[in-house]
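[09:14] KT: can someone run the structure on this one? pasting the chain below
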Amino acid sequence: MANRRSQRRRTSSPPVRTQRGAASRSTAASAAGNAGSFVSTLLREGLSTLREQAGTQVGSATELVRETGEQYLTRRKERAAEQLATVGDAVRLAADKLRDREIDALADYVDRAAERVDEVAQFVRDRDLDEMGRAVERFARRRPAVVLGALFLAGVAAGRFAKASRSGR
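[09:31] RB: done, structure tokens below
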């Protein structure tokens, strides 16, 4: 029986290919190639459009963040100017108390300090953020020791504040 099967296999002829079948396969291959090219073009154009839209959205978001940040910093600057003016008033009040006690030499010194604080408050109030940044940078370049000393004092004050807030719990 196995021999008969093998004989049948040998005797069966291969399928006949017609010109019509080859032409339809060629047309199908060409259509598939065109469809692939079309899809590839669509994908490229879609990705290009998506990239442009993403760039526009990122640009808009960046602008919004920048504007929001500027508004926040401007409000903080105005508040800092108000607080500095309040400090100037408090220092001036201390100078008046010293005069009441007839400690005029120290009162004059404290009065000059109050004037300086008022000048700083006015400076902060009148300048925009860019101008303030440039002015601080120029000052830091001219007087780095003063800036380092101020940073040191600010660090000491922050450390004292942190220590006091921990022990107050």
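[09:33] KT: thanks! DSSP finds five helices and no strands in the chain.
[09:34] RB: yep, looked fine to me
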